Amino acid sequence: MSEQSVTDFRNRARAWLEANAPRRGSGDEGSEAGRADIAAQQAFQAKLYDAGFAGISWPKEYGGQGLTDAEQIAFGQVARDYALPVGVFFIGLGMPGPTILELGTEEQKKRYLPKMLRGEEIWCQLFSEPAAGSDVASLTTSAVPDGDGWVLNGQKVWTSGAQYSHYGAVIARTDPTVPKHNGITMFIVDMHSPGVTVRPLKVATGATPFNEVYFDQVRLPAGSVIGEVNDGWRAAVVMLRNERVNIGTMGAPRTSPLSYHALSSLAAKQGDSADPGLRRKLAELYVRERSVRLFGQLLREEAMAGRDPGPRGSVAKLAGAELGTFASLVAAEVLGPAVAASDSEEVREVLNAALSAPGSSVAGGTNEIQRNIIGERVLGLPKDPGVDRSTPFNQLRVGTLRKN
Ligand SMILES: Cc1cc2nc3c(=O)[nH]c(=O)nc-3n(C[C@H](O)[C@H](O)[C@H](O)COP(=O)(O)OP(=O)(O)OC[C@H]3O[C@@H](n4cnc5c(N)ncnc54)[C@H](O)[C@@H]3O)c2cc1C
Fold it and tell me: Which parts of the sequence belong to the Acyl-CoA oxidase/dehydrogenase middle domain (predicted)?
């Protein structure tokens, strides 16, 4: 793909976005996805698809544009200045989608990917369980063969978007007699199947971004397995890698309520910008934000040149999460007593962003887990001994807690 054609594509994308999407910080961006705006998000995704900006690097036979990562990345760079109302597709297109593309059957690719791209079907990712988060291979949700399909039982938690998803990628134990990583399978589950119960969980901002999901004798038809039976750990690793790279290469948004730009203008409005302590913290925020942005850009440019960011996606994800935590502390200092009592819309936005920030130190793998990955796979430190890696799952305490 020539540099000129990428430049042309970028210009076309910018012109389309300018005409069709609200700019970030324009006050027009809408809030977190609620039930009511799902239809509007689906309509916008369909518009993006029709304009040739969905599935940019996915093959044409599965609904994509058949272009290269260079165009995909160019679009991402331009789109950062716009508040695209397509948040409900972030998981499907970033995680289950690429996993089906890499490991799915021809039938699955043809059935699910075009509808995902056109915004007709929304997906969620069902990995975490009450006793299996960082160590997700300890999961106890089970799937047993039933005729030509399977029957699914168990509980997932923290499932973002389950309340409005049509399908989910779920991992379940299919062989408890082998070590924990070897007896897992990934399935496609229809979230409207009989036996699926979704219970929203409320967070500090009052929103309900994620859910508990219960499976009670849920029938999974033939053709539901993604990849191979009992090889679901490989599929999970593909999905988690996509998740970290996606989160990690997003970079620091230029216009979030916790950005240097937003907080320094808020401080100026409140007459606080001369305070030397606060000025020092704002300066540090600027430097950290710029470093995260430049590192994200470096990884994107390397990806453009065909180099997989690999475990360095964890470095970007960790730095982004730590930036969010630091920015919320600066925000609390800028707001002062207004943190506790203010009915201004601007303060409410900053406060909501600050309350949501700790979530990014947990979602997609906690900061500690990212540090383990960086230690072992970037710095080459000795690996965690992983004492339970060769013990059959049904002989581990964690796996037998609920069953016996
Ligand atoms: C906003 C948000 C959205 C999410 N969306 C989804 C979703 O859509 N689908 C989904 O499946 N899950 C989702 N999750 C769940 C998320 O993946 C888990 O919360 C995360 O993996 C951590 O698991 P846990 O909460 O069980 O914590 P635990 O694994 O119990 O960890 C508890 C503490 O122990 C530390 N710890 C654990 N193991 C180690 C270790 N080996 N070394 C050092 N420290 C360790 C952790 O860092 C943490 O501080 C979401 C979470 C959040 C916050």
Answer: 124-218
